[in-house]
Amino acid sequence: MSKYWSNITKNIEPYVCGEQPKNKKIIKLNTNENPYSPSPKVFQAIKNAAKDDLRLYPDANCDALRKTIADYYNLSKEEVFIGNGSDEVLAFSFLTFFNPQETIVFSDISYSFYSVYANLYKLNYKLAKLREDFSIDINDFKNAEGGAVITNPNAPTGLYLSLDSIEQILDDNVNKVVIVDEAYIDFGGKSSVSLIKDYPNLLVIQTLSKSRSLAGMRVGFALGQRHLIDGLYRIKNSFNSYTIDRISSLAAIEAIKDKEYFKECISKIIKTRNWTINELEKMGFKIIPSKANFIFITHDTYQAEDIFIKLKDENVLVRYFNKDRISNYLRVSIGSKEEMDIFIDKIKKILNKL
Question: Which of 63, 188, 302, 316 has its CB surrounded by the most CB atoms within 10 Å?
Answer without folding.
Answer: 316
